[in-house]
Design brief:
With 196 residues, the protein is α+β, with helices and mostly antiparallel strands. 26% of the residues lie in helices and 31% in strands. It folds into two domains: 85 residues, 2-Layer Sandwich (GMP Synthetase, Chain A, domain 3); 69 residues, Roll (SH3 type barrels), CATH 2.30.30. A five-stranded antiparallel sheet has the order 7-6-5-4-8. Strand 5 and strand 6 form a beta hairpin.
Length: 196
């Protein structure tokens, strides 16, 4: 039996097909249909096409929203039930479950959850048919600092061993040391003084 999500996904497939107006820049990442009172809430997640890490601009999301709304109305898959449409891009909390998700996370710090129940913190370097390749990142274990030999060590994670990835939010600029940040702050202070 086909679920409503699958029916909606089928109706939206032509909108994101390669060669279509949106298909060269966006892909349909996920569809969720829920009920709120007497209406459906249709949540459509779109992501950038291809495997290159990139952000999606608001104009692309707006164009996708218009095209998705038109496709749903034309197909009539929701019948006469009113619906609220939400079109969004994946948030940082979206789990990495497909090779394309992992490829788009290149350069990011990811907690990789493995099939044996363990987890490892890696910076994703590359993705191929064999799996995810990254480098080990420092992580505290029970309040103890990381072992120096684990930092920067290569990690090759086979697809069969991966359950999911969780992108980690980093509050520091990539590659920036505390000294760099302090130096930048002093330069700004000096510029402010020169202007006065």
């Amino acid at each position: 039996m086909t679920t409503l999500e699958e029916t909606v996904r089928g109706a939206l497939a032509p909108v994101f097909a390669p060669g279509s107006e949106l298909g060269d820049s966006l892909v349909l990442d996920d569809v969720d249909v829920s009920t709120a009172g007497r209406r459906h809430v249709v949540r459509v997640v779109v992501d950038g096409a291809g495997d290159e890490p990139s952000d999606i601009d608001l104009d692309a999301v707006a164009a996708a929203s218009t095209a998705v709304s038109q496709a749903l109305d034309d197909a009539g898959v929701l019948g006469e039930t009113p619906y609220t449409l939400e079109v969004t891009s994946p948030g940082v909390d979206r789990p990495l479950t497909t090779p394309r998700h992992w490829a788009r996370a290149r350069g990011r710090l990811v907690r990789a959850v493995l099939a044996d129940g363990s987890a490892v913190l890696v910076r994703v370097v590359s993705v191929d048919g064999a799996g995810v390749h990254g480098t080990g990142e420092p992580q505290m274990v029970k309040g103890k600092p990381p072992r120096a030999k684990d930092v920067g060590a290569p990690h090759d994670l086979a697809w069969a061993d991966l359950v999911r990835g969780e992108v980690q939010v980093e509050f520091r600029r990539a590659g920036a040391d505390i000294e760099d940040l302090v130096a930048d702050e002093h330069e700004l202070d000096d510029e402010d003084e020169d202007e006065q």
